[in-house]
Amino acid sequence: MQQPAGFGSLLDSRVLKRKIMFVQISALTLLCSLGHASLPLVINTWPFKNATAAAWSVLQSGGSVLDAVEKGCARCEIEQCDGSVGYGGSPDESGETTLDAMIMNGDTMDVGAVADLRRIKNAIGVARAVMERTDHTLLVGESASVFAENMGFIAEDLTTNRSLNTFSQWLKGNCQPNYRKNVFPDPSISCGPYKPRVTLQRRKRVRHMYRHSHDTIGMIAFSQDGHVAAGTSTNGLMHKVPGRVGDSPIVGAGAYADSSAGAAAATGDGDVMMRFLPSYLAVELMRAGADPSAACETAISRIKRHHSEFFGAIICANTTGHYGAACNKSPGFSKFQYMVRDSKSDTPVLKSVDCI
User: pTM for this one?
Assistant: First the structure.
């Protein structure tokens, strides 16, 4: 039987399309197996295992990703993770502990944040109240504390014997280190009160980062169907100038979430990192097709070009459950640890990445 004209070429075309489809499916399968793709997913900065487990438990019981992030960060606030989250840590120049936090809904792009929060232990809870009980994004200082009390949060002393002792030792050491410059008396050898110098010094001072005080929990949670939320909580930089706010409660700096692209959360020297919006940049890179690890590395590299020895790291995850992390190699900091929990494991898993 004679075949119609062009039948052979049509057949060849169909075979070729099937081969291409097979290769694409195989490649996708391989990519998923290599990239840890799995939803639901919880990922957070540093080895804060109990926080990871708390967030995962919420997801497993049918809670929302916002509930998961709030409960995960709140666990760290209660446990005072590394002394850098929650009450009783990182006293400022006046000896007071203040808190910063932020939470973001990747579906609606709604955000709630608080900074320089006093007297209230549950900072991430207040951040969520800002998102759900006001039309604002960020409340700060004493007014944020009054808002929290009006919303039913309990006022408590955030000072502990440990924070008092830390502050006392700092005073005995002539207030070293501190974050003052271009003032007198010389802040490198003396406590204040300080006055401005007539002439500005251009010499850079060494930034004294507390790498053992990991400074923030940043958390990302994905549901099974791809909804995402992100959040942060911290008591900020130890011995900071009162009123200082770092990157943690700043949208796009401390964290960012968009259910159409992914989410990221940062940790480290917030005064430097917040200038580059690394979390926002990483999410936009993933939106453009970048692998999460590559997106994290690019965000870190962007900062590194201007501040070669800054202390910082970032975690990233996209809508398929692929995740990654990156950090900047600096004195005393060559690896970054973070936690992951998904359906492939029975418990939170500690991961690490070499800094670039």
Answer: 0.88
